[in-house]
Every structure is written in C-alpha cells, then in structure tokens.
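Dear U.,

For the methods section draft, I wanted the exact inputs and outputs in one place so we can describe them consistently. I've listed the two proteins in the order they'll appear in the manuscript figures. Please don't edit the token lines directly; just add comments below if something needs changing.

First protein:
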Amino acid sequence: MSVELPLWRALTGYRILTLGYALALFWLAHRHYAHPLGAAAYMAALTVWMLLTWNRVTAPERCTRSFLIADLGIALTGILLTAVVDSPARIDGGAATLPTVWAGGAVLGLAIKGGWRWAAAGSTLVAAANLAERGYFARDTVHNVLLVWISSIAIGYIVEVARASERTLARALRIEAATRERERLARDIHDSVLQVLAMVQRRGAALGGEAAELGRMAGEQEIALRTLVAGGLLPPQRPAGQPADDAELVRTVPEAPAGPCDLRALLAPYAGPAVSVAAPGTPVLLEAAAAAELAAAVGAALDNVARHAGQDARAWILLEDEPDEIIVTVRDDGPGIAEGRLAAAEREGRMGVALSIRGRLRDLGGSAVLESVPGQGTEVELRVPRSSRGNGVTG
C-alpha cells in the first residue's frame, strides 16, 4: 500500500473536523460580527463546497491541481472576507478568521500532492492573506503563519522522500523478481538443453566424420547458451577438439502431483546399481512444488557424481524427516573436488552447483552445504524447512 493513502485519508478527516470547528466558532460569535449575514453566506458556501468535494482528497487521482487551486482560493477568500464582515475591535483582539484552521487543509493538500514547493507557495499565500486581514504584524498572527508555513513544507518534503523510497523499493523488487525468474530458467536450461548439447558434442567427437562437425556446432551453441545463462560472463576457454565434461546422462526429474506428496516417491527413480536410496518407512510429505525442486537438486548432485567421480563411483542418498525440516544427503566415494574448482566453474559459466543446487534450495528458503575432501568423495546436504522462513545458502 502506498504511504500516501493514509495521508489522504487523514486529510479528509482533518477537513471535516475543522469545518465543524469553524461552524461552531461562527455560531458562538455570529452576533458580534459587523455583517453577520455576509459571514453566514460565506460559511454556507464553505459547507456546500465541503459537501460536494469531501471525497476529492481521499485518493491522489481525484485530488487534481485545479481542485487544489479552487480549495486554496476559497480559503483565501474567507480569510480576506473576515476583514469586511467582522468588526475592527474583534480583529484587533485576535478573533479567528472565518475559515479558521480549515484553511490549513488546503495547504496540506498542496503539500501531499506536489511536495514541499507547492506547500511553500500555498502557505505563503495563506500567510499574506492573514497579514492583510490583520493589517499589521501581530505576534499571534506571525506565530500561526510560521507554524503553517514550516509544518506544510516539512510534510511536503517527507512525502517527496517517501515517494522516492517507494520508487526505489519497487525497482528493487522488479530486479529481484527478474533475477529469480532468470535463475529458474537457467536451472531448467542446465538440467536439459546444456547437457543435451554437451552429450551431442562428446558423442560427435567420438564418432568422427560428419558427426564430429555436428558435435563442434553443438559445442559452440553450448558455449553461447552458457554465456547467456551466466548473464554476460566470459565463455569457457577450451582447447580445440576437447569435448565438454558434462554428463552424457540427462536425468529426468519425476513430476510431482498437486498438493502435498511423498518425497520418497520422487527420489526412488534415482536408485540403481550405483545409487542407493535410504528413506524412512513412513511417508515424507512436502508441498508438491518444493518436493519437485528438492528432487531436481538431488538429480543435479547425482549428475555431478556421474560427470566427475567416474563410472565406478557409487552414490548414496539419505532422506531424513525432521519435525521442522527435511534433510537429503547425497554422498559419493569419488575423488572429491579440488579446492577452487567450484569458483572456477562459476567463472566459466558452469552453474550446476550455483543454480541447479544452491539456487533451488535458496528459493525454497533452505540451504545447501557442500563438503569435499580430495580423495575421500563429496557430500551435499540439502535442508528444506517445512515452512519457508528465509533464505540461507552456505558451503
């Protein structure tokens, strides 16, 4: 909700309450006016104006510049008319003007609508009218004039700052939404298109002939697509003829049904001669979208095992059902990851861990911790809270 809306609603209440205050003051002192009929005519016109326009300041789109100018004109007319319909003795004694504090509502409307510059112009006109009505610089008049002038300018400045903050926040939210959508698409591309192109390049290089040329073209498209996904990062530099090191096997993540689903059913297809799955004997329920993303992250971790651990490597998947979160651990007995390899892969545009694993867990409000010791294998621990409470990615 815009920060302006409460201000417009407050201004509506201010105008209504101050009209009642002005009418009460006039009723109590109407016998003392030099021309009570003239004063009564103005108060009647002011009441009709309020009845017709009370809802014009409830929203910024209805509070137009022409309305604000007319509202300020009515306030100035009432202030100057006071010198005509009231007696000089009452004016010298500090009697209130006909619109009294209602005139401040016109200045506040200018402040909220146009900022401190409009507020300064409106309050200056009200100040000049008050001084002209009194005829000299009385202490109470100057005090009231300065109060209206300073407060209206301050409110106008605050409104401008609030608007700038809202624009900054809206821009940041748009950038965040676009970044998240880009990362989601990048994960999907990494899990499908990029791995297919890598497989074509590797098989083409192995077959030779026309297939090698097809593999070379697939490798070029893979580099271009990785660069696009990485958001402008430099493409990876490979020696001529060297195939991509992506896995030949492209895993298909099972689709989760609508509503809460059993995560065990999504992880079971990953089991095979080289992959063991250990899960509780009771259903592990998780929202379908979160379960599908978690299963995809597990698949990305197994793809990394197939790429880097070798054909003889084994992997184990452990599913744990905790009261507040679900933990999935993927461990292998491969050679491990060399220090600095993950950072180098991200610089080269290879976003398997950064997007397919960490990005998915971050979007779920969970965390992904990767531990690897050269020669002792790699372990990836995926934690997903049952209810999203924030984002945390470590490791």
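Second protein (the one for the lower panel):
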Amino acid sequence: MAENESNIAYLFKKLADGTASKEELAAYFELTKDNSLDDKITALMQAELKNNATPEIQDTERIDRVYNNIEAAIRVQQPAIEKSNYPFFKRWAAAAAILIVAGGLFYYSQNKPSKNNTQLVANDVAPGQHTATLTLANGQKIVLSNAATGQIAKQAGVSIAKTTNGRVVYTVAGNGDAETGQLNTLSTAKGETYQVNLPDGTQVWLNAASSLTYPARFVGADRKVKLIGEAYFEVAKDKSHPFKVTTNTQEVTVLGTHFNINAYSDETAVATTLLEGSVKVASNTNTEIIKPGQQTLTTARGITINNNPIIEGITDWKDGDFALNNQNFKTAMRKIARWYDVEIIYDASIPDTMQAGGWISRNNNISAILKLIESSGQVHFKVEGRRILVRK
C-alpha cells in the first residue's frame, strides 16, 4: 500500500509536469484502478492547486500547462482505455485533468467572491433526489421515497421490493398469471432519478423527467419496454428473447449489452450510445447496427452515426456527475435544468454554438455548478427563484 502511494505520487508529478514517458503514463493509469488510492489521488490534485494557485494571484499559465499535459496523456492512453473498457479510469482521468484547472478557478472564486457569486449563493437551489413514482398495473401509485424497504407489491407471480440502497427490484416468485401482460411504469419528475432491476435481471438507471414502462413479467418472444426521456441500460443476456426499447421515434434491439438512450423531446435527436456489446437501431425504414464507442442520432430525416461521442458527457448523470467538457453550452444547461428543476432564460447575446466546460458532482447546490461555468469568463448567471438568467 505504502509503495503504491509513493509510486502514484511520483508518477502524478511527472504526469502534471509533462515529463512522463509512455510507460510511466501506463503505470500511472494502471494504479488508478486501485480504489484504495482514491483519497491519495484527490490529495495530490488538491496539493497541485494549493501550490500553484493563491487567492491573490493565480498562476494561470502553470494551470493551463498542467491541464494540457494531462489531456495529452489521456489521448496517448486512449486506445488502451477503450480496449480495457474500464469506466473507473475514464472518470478519474477526466477528473484529474479538469480539477487541476477548474479547481484552481474554484479556489480563487471562493476566496475572492464577486457580487454575482454572492447573489448565486443567496438564491441557491438544492440538487435533485433519489426518488421516483411507481405506477402498478391496477393504477396504484407508490412514491418510492415514502415507501418502506422490503416488498411493496406483488403481481403476475412477481415480488416487487424496495432495497435498502434505494432501488426497485422485481423477483419472479412463482408461475402467476403470466399471460395478463400487466404493465408497470417507473417515472421521475425533474430533479429525480432512480434505478430498477427488471424481472429478467436487466438493470436500468432512469434520469430526471423520464419514464420507463415495462411488463411486471416478461412473456413471449421478446422483452419490450418503452422509454420517455433518458435511461442507461445493462441488459441481461438472453439470446432467445431480444430486449427492445421503444421511444416515440425509434426501436433499439439488443441481446445483452450496456447502452444509454437520450430521448428527451427538447433535444434535436434521439441519441443512442453503445458502451458494450451490439445494438440495432431502427426508425421507419432505416436500420443501423453500431459497435461500442459509437452513437446513433435519430431525427425525422433518418439515422446518422457519430463515431466519436464523448462518453463521459453522456453517462455522467448515471455516476452522479456533470462532465461538461466539449459539450454545447445550451445542451449542458438543459441537463442542469432537468436536475435542479429550473427554467433557463437566455439573453440574445448567447450564441447557439458556445461550448461548456468543467466537471463537478451533481450532489452540489446549483450555485457551485454555475460558479464553475462562470469561471470560464464566457457567461454570467442570475438566479431568480427557479429561473436562471444567462447573459454575456
């Protein structure tokens, strides 16, 4: 343990200075797989900020240099990352790069608060919650934050329970009346998120302002669910019974895989992003099969394939984060609006092509998110109740 801590400190320093060899980069990122080193890596990043940014004077050139060095290291290691399919690495690599620069800006703004930052804190909005509403086939509605742990319902020979870690789990408990096709719906409002284990073992994470409709028990040739909004799926493998996700404009068919679907009505396209396995996306007469690391974008004009989606910015919500680097600013603000249940109002000076940036936990109040974005110098925010005014 002590040896690993010493090695990670040595390698992080070389990484930040831009002097690490390719072999040293590989060794550093291999060590990030060790969960016990999380606190050590965080401490190294914080030390880097304290050594190179002060409330009075920010060494912006040094911070920029560190940021560029780490981003370059990530690019060098990217092929190995994709082959290993190790999501923990992706998160820490992004955090290491972004916290060095964005964290320095936070340190400065928190120690020298502007009048506008004071206003943001005074009119703060708390983050969303881990809750949802479960609607059973008979119309009964269960607000899951109010439900006790343990069995909450039973239908079609299936036990429905709420676990201690806050998810709904369906367990086949007997033969039941399997032909009834009883449908359940798990729905979240703005500012809510939840997880469900479906009766076939498939795990689904449901984002804010979304709903998933599914049978209490899968019967027949396929396993079909309907999605409104956004969800991340880890589908249980069953070659004999394809898993199908339908939205208003497309149908996704898989056998067993990990993927994310963003089907919000206020987005320009339905985005299906594949992390593992293979999926077939069909819309009208168009059909595309994609590989891990690809994304389909479905519109009224058909389906197009994006070969280079930024995965961290797509699945960040599932991990409890906002990863906004290289995202369209207004797209990022829609994500924020759904989680904090706020309305975004733009001044005419805000262009549609502006980019966002930064990484921060979704567990923060909205003031922390807005201060991070403001630190870029591109925009300023004013909070009025649950309305966020954006101006240059």
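Candidate sentences for the figure legend, describing the second protein: Residues 2-111 form one domain. The CA atoms of residues 129 and 333 lie 18 Å apart.

Thanks,
Y.
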